[in-house]
Amino acid sequence: MKVSPRAVLLALAAPLLAIVVAFVITSLVLVVAGDPVGAVWTELLRQPSPRLIAKIVNGAVVYYLAAVALAIGFRMNLFNIGAEGQYRVAVFAAAVFGAQGYLPGWANVVATTLVAMLVGAGWAAIAGYLKIKRGVSEVISSIMLNAIATSVVAFLLTKARDTSAGAGSNVTNTKPLPQDSWVPGLQLVSGTTTKVYGLIVLALVVGLLYWLVLGRTRFGFDLRAAGQSESAAIASGVDAHRMIMSTMILSGAIAGLIGLPLLFGQDHAYGTNFQPGIGFAGIGIALLGRNHPIGMALAALLWSYLDQQGNGLQINAGVSSELVYIIQGVIVLAVVIAYELVRRANVRLEQAKVARELAARSTPPTSTSMQGASA
């Protein structure tokens, strides 16, 4: 397959433009606030230590799963904003099930993973059902389901809390997983004892399957076709309602995996200190990566890099680490605008190319060629 250099440049232009815009706007915010611009960027752009690199990769693993979950819906023009709620109910259910130790070792890991996927898919199916049967926008229903999921999990956590934990802690946790169900980390970064989550393998498999299923199968073609035009999809024999439900279920199943690297590789239980906001971060990462498996991986690394590097802003630059959220938020807004600008530029270039080709075909023959033809 021939790769067009212009297509590659245009694909890179939007995310790079978004990052530049975020850099400029954040600098202006710092100037207005009277904060040291140079010190902030020196801190954010300094070379991370080996320990920090491992933590960046760990964060990227979780963010990548969130981005893939969102991207599945985006490919069909479905906005599954409910990944936050889906991953919360899924990881809570997985933590409660896995802690029972019904199966030994890796069998328990596999069974717990399936439980997380089923619960995440079931929670997402509610939004799919409401859209198909009642015409409710998936954006509205999934946002409401996020709020419901947070409250439901908080309530159930009080019922399923680990009563054997010592008193005096403000953190409420479920019963921890058996130690033979902990997934060991991988020593991928030299110079540090901090290991990368073992479930980075799961993230790689999910990315590969995402690329294969959505880009190389009939199901993926039908999914994208139904998203482009529901009427055209129906005319070609695709059941649009079935594709909506299938897409939401698949997106929710992947969202159910988001919290598993933390559950199996770090916390080994679900509690009130479990990392929030991952599902919402996946929206920006999927947009920045243009729903492409490699693009989302790079975007997830950037997101995690900003998270980890921002931890030292308060100490080394005298600026609140909340500044990172401003940068990430500006990137999300800028990337939407940048993609539209790049799209319009691409349309103009295509129009100019077509105009040149038409002009070349309609150019009248020269007098010399006419004399040669008459001779």
UniProtKB/TrEMBL annotation:
GO terms for cellular component: plasma membrane. Keywords: Cell membrane, Membrane, Transmembrane, Transmembrane helix. CDD domains: TM_PBP1_transp_TpRbsC_like (cd06580). The keyword Chaperone does not apply. One of its GO terms (molecular function) is transmembrane transporter activity. The chain crosses the membrane at residues 7-32, 52-74, 86-103, 109-130, 139-157, 196-214, 243-264, 323-342. It is a multi-pass membrane protein. It is found in: Cell membrane. It comes from the Bacteria. This is ABC transporter permease.
